[in-house]
Amino acid sequence: MNTHTKTDFTPIDQDLYAAAFRLLDPDPVPIPEPAPPAALVVPAQVPLTAAAPVRLTGPVEKTLTDALAFLDTHGWTRYSLINTEGARCSIGALRAAAGARNTAYRDAGNLLLDEARRQHGKKWQTIPSWNDCHSGAQVRSVWEAAIRRAQHLNI
Question: Is the pLDDT of residue 1 over 70?
Answer without folding.
Answer: no
